[in-house]
């Protein structure tokens, strides 16, 4: 099994679309990228900690590739909006890829460049960060599988 970590706005929707992929065994909501160890939802939501809401994806690379996960990431959020997705505004909702190794970094940067050159977002600049993995803080239990637990539809738009 391998790990990948993505931030694309509210982690409930991000978790939802990664859980739907064959080869993904788990998707866990959490926080990453902050300047201190304060990791409660209330603290992160304030925007003061610098953490992003992220989902750590556990996947079988024999079934689904990291590049395929990147494709899902790009399709399920707007990578051109700085520090926001839809009505969620703040650095905690930024578009970010936390790479786990050099290979993931290269693949993430290559896919970002390919998306920029594709013309899909020709009127806008892709602001997605590609940054090294930092400490992953698992979100509170009530955030895990939130949409399914509460019988809610995904909160993300497909792009």
TrEMBL record:
Keywords, in A-Z order: Oxidoreductase
GO terms of molecular function: peptide-methionine (S)-S-oxide reductase activity
Listed Pfam families: PMSR (PF01625)
Catalytic residue list: 10
Record-annotated Peptide methionine sulphoxide reductase MsrA domain positions: 4-155
Catalytic activity: L-methionyl-[protein] + [thioredoxin]-disulfide + H2O = L-methionyl-(S)-S-oxide-[protein] + [thioredoxin]-dithiol; [thioredoxin]-disulfide + L-methionine + H2O = L-methionine (S)-S-oxide + [thioredoxin]-dithiol
InterPro entries: Met_Sox_Rdtase_MsrA_dom, Met_Sox_Rdtase_MsrA_sf
Gene3D superfamilies: Peptide methionine sulphoxide reductase MsrA
EC number(s) given by UniProt: 1.8.4.11
PANTHER family: PEPTIDE METHIONINE SULFOXIDE REDUCTASE (PTHR43774), PEPTIDE METHIONINE SULFOXIDE REDUCTASE MSRA 2 (PTHR43774:SF1)
Family: Belongs to the MsrA Met sulfoxide reductase family.
The protein's role, per its UniProt record: Has an important function as a repair enzyme for proteins that have been inactivated by oxidation. Catalyzes the reversible oxidation-reduction of methionine sulfoxide in proteins to methionine.
Protein name in the entry: Peptide methionine sulfoxide reductase MsrA
């Amino acid at each position: 099994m391998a790990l990948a970590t993505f931030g694309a706005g509210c982690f409930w929707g991000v978790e939802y679309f990664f859980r739907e992929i064959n080869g993904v065994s788990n998707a866990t909501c959490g926080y990453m990228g902050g300047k201190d160890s304060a990791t409660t939802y209330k603290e992160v939501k304030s925007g003061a900690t610098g953490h992003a809401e992220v989902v750590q994806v556990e996947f079988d690379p024999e079934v689904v590739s990291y590049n395929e996960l990147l494709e899902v990431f790009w399709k399920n959020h707007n990578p051109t909006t700085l520090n926001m997705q839809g009505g969620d505004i703040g650095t905690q909702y930024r578009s970010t890829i936390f790479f786990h190794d050099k290979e993931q970094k290269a693949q993430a940067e290559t896919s970002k460049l390919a998306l920029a050159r594709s013309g899909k977002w020709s009127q806008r600049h892709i602001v997605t960060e590609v940054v090294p993995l930092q400490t992953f803080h698992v979100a509170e239990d009530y955030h895990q599988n939130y949409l399914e637990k509460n019988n809610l539809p995904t909160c993300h738009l497909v792009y």
